[in-house]
Design a protein that fits this description.
Layout lengths: L4 H14 L4 E6 L9 E3 L5 E3 L1 E3 L3 H6 L5 E4 L8 H11 L3 E4 L14 H7 L8 E2 L6 E2 L1 E4 L15 E4 L1 H11 L1
Parallel strand pairs: 1-4, 1-5, 5-6
Antiparallel strand pairs: 2-3, 7-8, 9-10
């Protein structure tokens, strides 16, 4: 979290629109942190999106888009991999943003499979909120064992491997 994934997604969607490409942007319906229908970055940049219940809905709604963008892919079911591949087979450019690891530092849902079938993967890093190094872990500050827990800076903080592991030991 806090690495600029959504900011990068918005940047790529905006560039495609500037190039007069037909863009469809989707987000999981469960993600209502900032807005029900907008994809919003931590920097408060926003783009209109279509919230969907499941990944197969994206196939039905991509229509004549040449670019299909998906935010928070880790919240989708495993069918998202099939959807991404089908869209790519149709000649669409598919842009997906999501967390690759959960709050325990383990691969998150469908993300490893998506990364495996992708032609290009861009991994962005946050800054560790403890020591200032590059961070690629989302440390959950609250005592909640649910895999999916929506939250922001009050619930999560970006950490490097060392500070993440130290925090996990302290929490036990």
């Amino acid at each position: 979290m806090f690495s600029g994934k959504t900011e990068e997604l918005i940047r790529r969607v905006t560039r495609a629109k500037i190039a007069n490409q037909k863009v469809e942007l989707f987000k999981p319906k469960v993600d209502v942190r900032y807005d029900e229908t907008m994809v919003v970055s931590h920097n408060e940049n926003a783009v209109q999106a279509t919230p969907v219940d499941g990944s197969l809905h994206i196939l039905l709604m991509a229509n004549d888009a040449t670019v299909v963008a998906i935010d928070e892919a880790q919240f989708f079911d495993d069918e998202i991999v099939y959807v991404a591949e089908k869209l790519a087979e149709q000649g669409k450019r598919v842009i997906i943003a999501g967390l690759d690891m959960d709050y325990l530092g383990k691969p998150f849902g469908c993300m490893p499979k998506l990364m495996a079938v992708a032609e290009y993967v861009t991994k962005v890093h946050a800054i560790c909120m403890v020591c200032g190094d590059l961070a690629n872990f989302s440390f959950r500050k609250t005592n909640n064992n649910s895999l999916i827990m929506l939250g922001e800076i009050e619930s999560y903080e970006a950490r490097c491997r060392h500070c993440f592991n130290k925090g996990m030991i302290t929490q036990k």
